[in-house]
Design goal:
InterPro entries: Ig_CFAP47
Radius of gyration: 30 Å
Distance between the termini: 64 Å
CATH architecture of the largest domain: Sandwich
Organism: Rissa tridactyla
CATH topology of the largest domain: Immunoglobulin-like
Strand content: 35-45%
Helix content: under 10%
Structural class: mainly beta
Number of domains: 2
Strand order of the largest sheet: 4-13-12-9-8
Order of helices and strands: EHEEEEEEEEHEEEE
Protein name: CFA47 protein
CATH class of the largest domain: Mainly Beta
GO biological process, one term: sperm axoneme assembly
GO cellular component, one term: cilium
Shape: elongated
Length: about 260
């Protein structure tokens, strides 16, 4: 799309609307180019020098008389589609405080292959299906983090830095199984989630899976830490009315 004839006052602001309506789970790239010229048609003075930055030379249009006819601002735009998640049920991980549990979480990624489904959907569950379909043949490459260029990347995201500081050190995640259905193109990822809370809590998080071609899937998760079990029962026997009874016990600190 091209928009011409827009006048901008000195120190004025220009809003440029960008509309993104993806139909497949892949990244789309575009470039927004702003070309500014003087309203009176005059050129800016310009001296071609070997010391002039190459990036600056690419950002101006030079007229025949040697002046700067226009200035360019180039903004790359990446459109990354995200699968809808309104109807997803959170995968709930429950554990008593000061204990440790391991749960398997299965997520389905649809729309990975363009044209495989009309509109990508997703589902997650805390259960594992051990009966693998016969038409699942190939594996997909996955890594933990967003730094390397492989087929899929994943991480846990938290609603705030405060929740991240509370939950980040208590939760571990590891991919244990990955499969692709060659007929439907649906990718199944199975994660092993370790939860070792140190106190009662209830926090939400999101398992984010990103395809290197651009698609993003988010799966809600809920971590619930219940009250810990009673450590011990202290019995104090009375020795008589209005007399003190004393019992001693040891407490060991787990930190300094």
């Amino acid at each position: 799309f091209y928009f011409t004839g827009t006048r901008l006052a000195p120190k004025g602001k220009l809003d440029i609307p960008v509309l993104f309506m993806p139909d497949t789970m892949k990244m789309y790239e575009a470039v927004v180019v702003i070309h500014v010229m003087r309203e009176n048609g005059e050129n800016w003075p310009y001296e071609d020098s070997a010391e002039l930055n190459k990036d600056l030379k690419r950002s101006v249009t030079v007229a025949e008389n040697g002046g700067i006819q226009g200035i360019l601002w180039i903004y790359p735009v990446h459109g990354i589609p995200e699968a809808p998640q309104q109807k997803l049920v959170p995968a709930v991980i429950r554990c008593r405080a000061r204990q440790r549990v391991e749960r398997r979480v299965e997520v389905l990624l649809t729309g990975v292959v363009p044209g495989a489904t009309a509109m990508p959907t997703a589902r997650n569950s805390a259960m594992v299906n051990t009966n693998n379909p016969a038409n699942i043949q190939e594996e997909v490459q996955v890594t933990d983090g967003f730094s390397t260029t492989v087929e899929f990347l994943y991480e846990l995201q938290y609603q705030s830095n405060e929740i991240k500081s509370q939950l980040g050190a208590l939760v571990g995640m590891h991919l244990i199984q990955r499969e692709r259905d060659t007929e439907s193109g649906i990718v199944t990822l199975i994660f092993n989630i370790v939860f070792a809370p140190n106190k009662p809590m209830r926090n939400e998080a999101a398992l984010v899976v990103q395809c290197t071609t651009g698609g993003v899937w988010k799966f809600p998760m809920l971590f619930i830490a219940m009250e810990p079990e009673v450590d011990d029962v202290i019995n104090i026997e009375a020795v008589g009315l209005n007399k003190e009874s004393i019992v001693s016990f040891k407490l060991t600190s787990q930190t300094r």
